[in-house]
Specification:
The complex is a heterodimer of chains A (about 375) and B (about 280). Chain A is of the alpha+beta class and about 375 residues long. Chain A has 13 helices and 16 strands. In chain A, strand 2 and strand 3 form a beta hairpin. By secondary structure, chain B is of the alpha/beta class. Chain B has 2 domains: about 90 residues, Elongation Factor Tu (Ef-tu), domain 3 (Beta Barrel); about 160 residues, 3-Layer(aba) Sandwich (Rossmann fold), CATH 3.40.50. In chain B, the strands form 3 sheets. Chain B has a 7-stranded mixed β-sheet with strand order 10-9-8-7-11-12-15, sandwiched between helices. The chains are: A alpha+beta (about 375), B alpha/beta (about 280). At the A-B interface, strand 6, strand 7, strand 13, strand 14 and strand 15 of A face loops of B.
Chain lengths: ~375, ~280
């Protein structure tokens, strides 16, 4: 155990055993560690008790409508890109009871949901996911109203980031300016370095809490050479990202092309299944559902994730407003990349590529945007 | 003074209970509920144009505009047309029943900005209810406003709301109330046709007119066309917009239209803000 407290913004070195001790130290503080593990044929976020729960020696290959686990030749723990789940699944949960109500003397009494907010420690969070949480903060915390569920869970959480050194084919964080290196928003950030006979982590200290956690485990100084290796790993990752989204003037391009014929083209392929909205780490839309027990003595209100791809999403008396798949895809993409700027002063996209990998039709928003842009430039050229 | 029961800002999704003081049947499918506080606490003040989320126990919650007089404290009045499960449950309430509410929410009609100017209201169907607080306000402060014109259309005579009040309002000084129905009947002696046909008879002073309109979107589009033709400036035209709302605080995402959340940026918008997003589009 190290008696000293490392400085914030400094970097130290730990090995695999140190990582195990870090998980134990976090758990001792009463946090539930949520980290990457194998689930349903993917590397997903779930409860981590010990280092063996991590996907040791696994990676994943990703592409449009494609996600496959693959064995690695080493025992790497963090060499893969974002899986289907994100922090959203935990801090903006897919379903939660808002209140219950009981009948009482001809009236009823409302009982707020008093369940204590879970204390999560997220392990393995990538730069794009931190950016996504920052975007959700602006939506759910920083407006005129703030969501108490999100506020409690987000405020309670510890974040152990991992600097991404293995982006996938669907990643385009470099276009969105969100990665692959995380600069802030974490308590600790690990860079996993694997060499012949070595498996170690450079740990950047982001907060006082991160420093205190480190002080409870064995660490050593990170040599300049090791720090350079860590820097080089994310630089190589950035250089390896091929996919591009041209964000230049994108807000206006989508806003001004409401009637573009390419929306019909996408609509031929889009199934309106809503997968993209479920895996998107920034999509925040929810439904509010009321129900009673059979006897009508207690009622409940639940909040559940919703999707702008569903017909019911825009239902008002008389029918739905966005009837066609075309109008719903257009709403999703234009909201994400254009209206989001008006509403929350940033893009709603972090370039994680989840919507590309998990779309059953392999619709790739970077290509759809490029198609709209290309045809727009053409029309402008002929004017 | 009583402490207003504002929706708890630390949990804007948590409703407060209110008691139904009285129920007035307006038409075959529309009732006006007067709500009062259940205990010694008061009810929040509202501004004309704002709405509340009303909850019928176990059935659900819907956005309903306040239709009462802003000058009467501790009573929030809602005129509700039964068009679905929740609105149906609400209009079937009896005096003494408890419902619950969150709000009031949203942007108001520009009653202050319209001071000193002519005011034109154009309402269709249940759209008269969200405008009624404006009427109460202007008639109470009649000298503060110029010419006052109310154009109101309904589908048929039996759908007309507030018929006694319409008569009383038309008797107010320098106030014109014109009512029309799409389909009359043998006994109907009034105007027949869409509300926009009144623009042929009404003499507006476009430079000094503030127009406010609420009704079916198709009606509002044609009202915009008439006001354009009359050269009323976009920034002096206000509309109240409606889409599905599940939260009223910008979290559920349902009521988005272009860059706006109708719940927190609206429901009342200037046409100058809304023109781009509603003009001629079949779907939003």
């Amino acid at each position: 155990m190290n008696a000293c407290l490392p400085d914030i913004r400094s970097a130290v070195r730990i090995d695999c055993q140190g990582l195990g001790s870090l998980i134990a130290a976090i758990r001792r503080r009463g946090y539930q560690v949520i980290g990457p593990h194998l689930q349903d044929g993917a590397i997903s976020y779930g409860p981590i008790q010990e280092i063996e729960d991590l996907p040791i020696g696994w990676t994943a290959e990703q592409g449009p409508a494609f996600y496959r686990l693959q064995r690695r030749s080493d025992s790497a723990m963090f060499q893969y890109a974002a899986g289907p789940k994100s922090l959203k699944d935990f801090i903006h949960p897919s379903e939660i009871r808002l209140f219950s109500a009981v009948r009482e003397e001809g009236a009823f009494r409302i009982l707020p949901n008093s369940d204590p907010a879970p204390r999560y420690a997220f392990l393995g969070v990538r730069a794009c996911e931190l950016a996504a949480a920052g975007i959700q903060d602006r939506v759910l915390l920083e407006g005129r109203y703030s969501d108490p569920i999100y506020r409690a869970r987000r405020g309670n959480s510890i974040i152990i980031a991992v600097q991404c050194s293995a982006p996938s084919e669907v990643c385009f964080c470099t276009s969105m300016g969100t990665g692959p290196r995380a600069e802030a928003g974490f308590d600790l950030a690990l860079t996993e370095l694997i060499g012949p006979g070595s498996h170690e982590f450079v740990v950047e200290v982001g907060t006082q809490l991160g420093a205190e956690l480190l002080s409870e485990i064995e660490f050593s100084d990170a040599s300049p050479d090791l720090r350079n290796q860590a820097q080089a790993a994310t630089q190589a990752a950035a250089a390896s990202i091929q996919r591009r989204l041209d964000t230049n003037g994108l807000r206006e391009v989508l806003r001004d092309n409401f009637d573009h014929p390419h929306w019909d083209d996408v609509a031929q392929r889009c199934l309106a299944c809503g997968n993209c909205t479920q895996v998107c780490p920034t999509c925040f839309c929810v439904n509010v559902e009321d129900s009673t027990d059979v006897a009508g003595q207690t009622a409940e209100r639940w909040r559940r994730w919703d999707s702008c791809y569903s017909l019911a999403f825009t239902y008002i008396h008389g029918g739905s407003v966005r009837v066609s798949t075309k109008s719903r895809y257009r709403q999703w993409l234009t909201h994400k990349l254009s209206y989001w700027h008006d509403q929350f002063a940033s893009s709603g996209c972090v370039g994680c590529g989840r919507c590309i990998a998990w779309c059953p039709a392999g619709i790739d928003l970077t290509q759809e945007v490029a198609a709209i842009r290309a045809a727009t430039n053409q029309t402008e050229g002929t004017k | 003074m009583s402490v207003p029961l504002h929706t708890d800002l630390s949990d804007p999704m948590l409703p407060v209970a209110v008691r139904i003081a009285s129920v007035a049947r307006e038409t075959h499918d529309t009732c006006t509920l007067v709500t009062e506080p259940v205990d010694s606490g008061g009810l929040p003040a509202f501004q004309p144009g704002q709405f509340s989320m009303l909850y019928s126990y176990g059935v659900g919650e819907v956005p309903i505009s306040v239709s009462g007089d802003p000058g009467v404290p501790d009573r929030l009045v809602y005129t509700i047309r039964s068009v679905g499960a929740v609105s149906g449950a609400l209009v079937n309430r009896s005096p003494g029943d408890t419902i619950s509410m969150r709000g009031p929410f949203g942007s108001p009609w520009p009653v202050e900005a319209a001071r000193g100017r002519d005011v034109l209201l154009v309402a269709g169907g249940i759209g008269l209810a969200p405008l009624r607080p404006v009427i109460y306000h202007i008639l109470r402060h009649r000298a503060d406003y110029g010419r006052f014109t109310i154009l109101y259309g309904a589908r048929s005579p039996k759908e007309l709301l507030f018929t006694k009040e319409l008569k009383a309002w038309s008797a107010a000084p320098d106030t014109q109330v014109l009512t029309t129905v799409d389909t009359g009947g043998a006994s109907w002696r009034g105007h027949v046709g869409v509300v926009t046909k009144f623009f042929r008879f009404v003499k507006l002073r476009p430079q000094q007119t503030v127009a406010m309109t609420c009704g079916p979107e198709i009606m509002m589009r044609f009202v915009m066309r008439e006001l354009d033709a009359q050269k009323v400036a976009d920034e002096n035209i206000y509309l109240s917009m409606e889409l599905n709302m599940k939260c009223a605080v910008g979290f559920c995402g349902h009521c988005q239209m272009g860059p706006y959340f109708l719940c927190k940026d609206g429901p009342v918008f200037r046409y100058a803000e809304m023109r781009r997003w509603m003009g001629g589009r079949h779907e939003l």
